Amino acid sequence: xxxxxxxxxxxxxxxxIAGTVGVLTDDHDFRAxxxxxxFTFDDHAAYLRNLETVLKAxxxxxxxxxxxxxxxxxxxxxxxxxGLDPDAPASxxxxxxxxxxxxxxxxxxxxxxxxxxxxLVDEAVRQATWEYATTLLTRLGPCPACGQDIGRASxxxxxxxxxxxxxTAPRGDHHLVCTxxxxxxxxxxxxxxxxxxHGETRLDEAEALEFTSVLALGxxxxxxxxxxxxxxxxxxxxxxxxxxxxAGALEPLTASEVFDAYCTDVESGDPIPPESGVDxxxxxxxxxxxxxxxxxx
Length: 297
What we know:
alpha+beta, 10 helices, about 20% strand
């Protein structure tokens, strides 16, 4: 009887233990891991099918699992820094545990891996973009004229601008895209701001942090770019409008400029047919204080 009680208790405890699985999302990373003899998988598609079976079984047992993006280059660097043997399952387990705390992750919620893995990659890109933008903002240092921290001040201003943009937006679900041109590279950040039945705006905290950081970088460095918002609401046409990011300020785009931006192929420059049921217009005024340029840093 006591033995049975212990077995039951252990089964219950197993359900209380959350787990993290490091996933090789693409064939290139999968091939990179095959150089380790202890990594016994030889087919990426079969690897993903078996992983999905394991995830479903854990979910059926009531066990929570988090998916983390496993990068072979980061893993090799981690093993070199810690002195671990990279050709050992235990080392991969320790690295995955580190990913659970610091890396991009998504919870397994029963959806097919074909749906979850793109979300995991998007999360990795979002985190990398935020880290890159934050690093550049930090490197700007203090303003030589007034001593104000340029990066921190620009982030505060970008936060206020985002609040103002959402406050002046029409009712509905919003899709915002902010682009800041390099060098060394162009940054693109996307933010979804949906409204609940009570009219309250819901934001993903990580998305909002990345979006604000990219906008702040554009303001601080006076880099060219833009911010466009599309609003979708039941019973009305989608509304699209935006601003040009120039010389550290947001300048409203005209309706024709927004139309041209949406109806031009980004890669080829060729015109594309406009969408039906979409209203291309001018943005509401954000107020002189919101759009005013900072003093030259």
